Structure formats: C-alpha cells, structure tokens
Amino acid sequence: MDYTALYITLKLAMVTTVVLMILAAPMAYMLAFTAFPGKSLVEALIYLPTALPPTVIGFYLIILMGPKGIAGSAWGSITGGSLLFTFTGIVIASVIYSIPYAVQPMKAAFQKLDRRLLENAYVLGLSRKSAFFRVILPNSLNGIVAASVLVFLHSIGAFGVLMMVGGSMPGETRVASIAIYEAVESMDYHKAGILSLSFIPISYAFLLLVNRLNKDSSNVN
Amino acid sequence: MKKFSRKSITALIISVLFFSLPVLAEEKITAGVAANYIQTFKELSTAFEAKTGIKVEATFTSSGTLYTQISNGAPYDIFLSADEERPSRLFKEGLVEKPFTYAAGQVVLWSAKKDFCSSNDWTKAIKNESIKKIAIANPETAPYGLAAMKALQKAGLYDSLKPKLVNSQDIAQAFQYASTEAVDAGFCALSAVYSEKGKAGCYYKIKEAPSIVQSACVLKSSKNLKNAQKFSAFLISKEAVKIKEKYGYR
Amino acid sequence: MSINLSIKKKLKFLDIDISFSCPDGKLLVMIGPSGGGKTTIIRMLAGLDKPDEGKILFNNRAWFDSRKGISVPVQKRRLGYVFQDYTLFPHLSLYDNAAFAAYDKKDVDELFELFRISHLRDRKPHMVSGGERQRCAICQAIARRPKALLLDEPFSALDVVTRRGLREELKNLKEKFSFPTIYVTHDINEALYLADEIFPVVDGKADYGWMQRTVARDQSLRAARETRLTLAY
User: Distance, in angstroms, between A100 CA and closest chain C CA?
Assistant: First the structure.
C-alpha cells in the first residue's frame, strides 16, 4: 500500500498553512483596523476564491502559471523549469484557494479585541507594529489557531484546483484526494477505501481541536 | 489552552519549510500514459524495473489531457499516446524526440450483461430497446472515443444513438461505467476485455473501427533522458511484445 | 508646566468648541450630561482623535496646532490614560501590565504597595475584581511618569462602596502628583470631592451655569453647599 499520496497531502497542507498564516495576517489587520476608499472592493476580492468554482480558479491559475503566463515564464527564466505540475505550483494554488479561510477568522479574532486595548497600547508608547506583535497577536491566539486549523482542513480536501494545476505527478503533486479519484476510476476500491478511511481520524481530530478553541475563547471572555 | 512558546512555533515552522525541500530521488522516470494501456503498462514497468533497477511511475489519463499538460510544461520523461497525431504534433512543436509506434489497439463494444452478445452484429444489439445508456470516451480527448464515434457514423447510427451516449473522461472510465453497470454497454479498449472484470462480461469486435495505432515519444525537457530512452527501447523489445500481446495489442 | 487647549470639532450630533487649561499638580474635572462630548475632548487631548481646528499646548509646546499643521502622535505625548474598562492587557499579569511602559520598574512595586494590590501581582486581569483592575490601571498609567494623567470615568463600572474607596485613594495620591490630571465623570459628588477645578461641558461647549443649576435643583447634593469649589473660567 503506497502512502505517498497521504504524505504529499499532509506536506502540502502544512506548508500552505504556514505560508498562508504569514500572508493573511497583514490582510486581516488591514481589514480589521484600517479604513480606506475602495475597502469593500478589496475585501470582496480577497473572499473571491470562496465564491468561484474550483475549476475556474484552476483555469486562471493555469493561464498565470503556464509557460506563457506572467508567473510561469518568470519562474522558468529563474529556475529553468515549469511552475505547473510541481509541488511549488500546487502550494501556490492551495494558498490562493484557501486565502479567505485564513483571512476571515483572523479578521474576526482581531475585531473581537476592544479598541481601547489597542488605544491604551498606543498611549503607552507602542508603535502600530509593536502593538500588533505585543498586544493584538497574544490576545487573538485562539482565533489564529482556529484559522490555521481551518486552512489545514480546507487544504487536505482540495481536488479540482490541484488536479488542473498539478496534474497527478506521482510523488510530487498526486495528493490523496486525486489518488482516491484515480483509484475509483481504475476500480481499485481497496486502495480508495484505505485512503479515504485515513482522512477521517485526521479531520475529526482537527475539528475537535477547533471546537475546544472556540469554547476556550468564549470562557475567558 | 496551552500557550505555545515562541521557540516551539519557530521550530515547527522551520521544520515544515525544510520538509518541503526537494528530496534526492532514486533512479526513476515518469511517464504520461494513455488510459487504455493501464494494465499492460503496469506489467511492462514492473518488468523494466526488475531488469534495470529504474523505477517507472505513471499518470494515466486521456491522450488529450496529456497533450495539454505537456504543452504547458508537464515534467514527464516519456509520453505514450493512444494515437499518432498528438506525438507528431508535439514533434513539430519541437517539444519531443521522434515518435515511434509501440502498440496497435482495437476498440470494442463491451457489456457486463452476457446476454447482450447473443446477436451476431453489434449494430443490431446496440439498437435494442433495453440499451438505454452507452459509454463512450470523449472523442475530443480520447483517440479510442474518436474511433468509436467514427464507427458509429460509418454505420449510420451516430445521430440516432447520440442521446444515449454518456461521455467519459477517458477510455478507462468508459470501461468503469460499463462494468459497474452505470451504463448498459460501453466502447472500450480491447485490452479491458482481458482483465478480471472484463472476462465477466462479453464484447463485440467492431469492423467499422480501424486499428488504433499508438505512438510514444521522449520529451526533450526530460531530466532523465538516458533512462527514458532506455525505456523506449524496452517498449518495443521482444519481452515487451510478449507482454502486450497478452492484452490484445499488436 | 501645564496643559492649554482650545479646540473645535464637528461631530454627527454635536459641535464641540471649548477651551480650558490645567496647571501642574491640579486635578480638573470635566463634568456634564452624557453625550456632551467629554470623552471626545479627552481623547483629542490624548491624541486618539483629531480636532478640526485649534491648538493643544503642553508647556507651550504644541501637541496639536491646526494652523501650523502640527499633530504629535499619541505615542509621543507620554500620557497616562485610564479607561472605564479594558485598560489592562488580558494576556499579562497585573505586574507585567503595570510595568509595561514603566519609567522605572521600582516605581511599580511602590505603587502596588500604595494601592494595596501587591499580593495580586502575578494574577491575570480576569482573575481579580473590577476595583483591583482599576487600581492596577492607575498604577500602569502613573508608572509611566506621564506628562499628564487622563481618566475617563474610571470608576463608573464599579459598585458604590468600591468607588468611594478608590476616590479617596486617588485624592490622597493626587497630592504627590507633579503633573496635571484631567478627570471625566458624570457624577457630581465625585466631581466635588476630587476637583481642584470643575469644567462643565454641555452639548460640546462650556456651560458655567450648569453646576449652579444642577446643584440647586437636586436637594440631595448637600455636599455642594458644604464644599468650597472653584469653577474654571
């Protein structure tokens, strides 16, 4: 029984989560604490991936990351290889696919903080940047962890986008969801069954964690 | 909730990113293979690995999908198509080395229900009232589907049967639909007939469908050119011929 | 040293237009009906909101001057500010809170002794009472050795007994302050007890007659007749 696909899925989910939490923090900060003209347009743009069918996202990513696309050709001139059908390519796809699932909970966690906490931080001399790291982050930890769990879960379920952007390169981009689909296609129901079963404990454990985190934060307040 | 120390979070992040660095690979090549050749290919690659120690990994899907992927830079080392046209197009575009024929296949009409084959003419059996759905691989991306469509047109049945046709992604999926009885019959590759599930049903040969000449080519962008070329040589070797004939290929 | 301000701001339901000053060591109370703009005024003094026009001077140095385009950010004004609630950081202990921006950490120990919360130094804000939290908030503000101390209804969320106690402690401590203190409240008794000067704000403007009228109207405000008070003109 080949577990490479599961390994790739988990690897992809972890890398996506780390990258996305770092990328999403400034976006969530901007949405939670600043006001500027056109803010609602920007916000809708950030949430767009939830409203689009995965194949649409995949389509535009192929155009962007293909050998003639902006991202793809830049990548090609730097590394000499293609961006599509590689692990890096599906990380990019996975990150874009899950952006809203990171930004939204983080923004909600930041907004839960009372403005006066932040204002007191400023009064006490903290710059906006210091206030973010020393006051906002430590007090929205529950929301941040919940966001990362959601991103993780969402990533392990990705299928359509990854199929289009990554193909199904064994050992590289053949994630578990694709491997299951292919196993069903070639009527290897045994393989499909084992891969599918292994998802359940992982997803269930993470859901319990999210539940516990949500309870925690409501207790403390 | 336990508070994670900054140190442990940093350690976690670093190990995850490190994790994602490319790992040194053993000797292996990656093949993009037309879906009709799945069973044959699996046996061929096992034999090749036993002989040379080079691992062969494959992605099985329609020739059309493989062609698109390769045009977009997919990192296959070798492409086994179900037709001649796509490899020759890629050769003209300068993406691959000279294509060569590695097999010739046949499209057949297969059904899981043995009484489907009681007639002596597939055109009669297929017009039967009880046949409500027929699987055919998408003619635009699967050469076997295209051959099936041409055969239907030649027999003058295409227009009348069109509403009953169910498109599948590739020829393997067409067989899957037929063997799980999601459809009543399907146009499949002859090789499917030789599998376990294939033997449980029955099939008609289709004389209106010409032999399907399948050619393969090595990609110029391959990072394992030598091994890919070794494998191409193997594909047409005597040993390979013996294996493919088992599955109905010539 | 002293604070001098003269500012205007137009809000949705209110037009603010006031001037006052407060010298070192004095405590000025801004009092008036709610919705009158007191909180906005004190926030502008702190730098958390911006006036439309006017000047805010500290020791004749401009913190804000609309004509010269000066606006010193809140971080640089070195103030102490006590909110009604949510002044303390939930993730830090009381000691860490008070020491957060302390000029000299030793001050914190002294202040804790003064306010009798030394035994709570390692507890987190949600584990102590409201009164103890506000005590810590005051320590946090004073430990900074601020140029001025601003308090916006600091005891309004507490029960009457705790309020009285804290009021007393603040009054005692105030004698040692070398900086100006601005105190916002809507409680007249509190104002009369604490203030060196009283500044009534009604509908965004100074209303010197308000005190007289309100005190006269409310017979329970006996304290008014018994205390000498100065009105800031």
Answer: 27
**Rounded Cα–Cα distance for residues B74 and B243 (Å):** 28
Interacting residues of A34 by C-beta distance below 8 A, sequence separation 6+: none
How remote is the C-alpha of B12 from its chain's centroid?
Answer: 41
Residue C233 banded pLDDT, cuts 50, 70, 90 = very low
- Distance (Å, whole) CA A106 – CA B27: 45
Residue with tokens 């050998």: A67
Is residue B9 assigned to a domain? no
Q: Is C231 left (phi over 0), alpha (psi -120 to 50) or beta?
A: beta
The chains in contact with chain C, meaning 3 or more Cβ pairs closer than 8 Å, are A
CB contact under 8 A, B75 and A171: no
CATH code at position A117: 1.10.3720.10
Per residue in B21-38, pLDDT (tens digit) is 555 557 899 999 999 999
| Residue numbers of the domain that contains B76 | 28-104+213-246
Number of domains in chain B: 2
Token pair listed for A89: 């390519």
In this prediction, residue C212 has a pLDDT band, given cuts at 50, 70 and 90, of: confident
Residue ranges of E strands in C106-161? 148-152
pTM of this structure: 0.79
**What mean pLDDT comes out for the span A159-180?**
91
Which chain A residues have a beta carbon less than 8 Å from that of B3?
141
- Chain B (166-185) residues lying within 8 Å, Cβ to Cβ, of chain A: 169, 172-173, 176, 179-180
Contact between chains at A123 and C126 (C-beta distance less than 8 A):
no
Can you list the domains of chain C with their CATH numbers? 1-78+181-233 (3.40.50.300)
φ, ψ of residue C80 in degrees (nearest 5): -115, 135
Best residue in A169, A189, A209, A216 for a mutation probing chain B (most B CBs within 10 Å): A169
Judge: A124–C140 Cβ closer than 8 Å, yes or no.
yes
Give the one of A87, A141, A174 whose C-beta lies nearest to B20's C-beta.
A87
Residue at B234 is within a domain: yes
ipTM score assigned to the predicted complex: 0.88
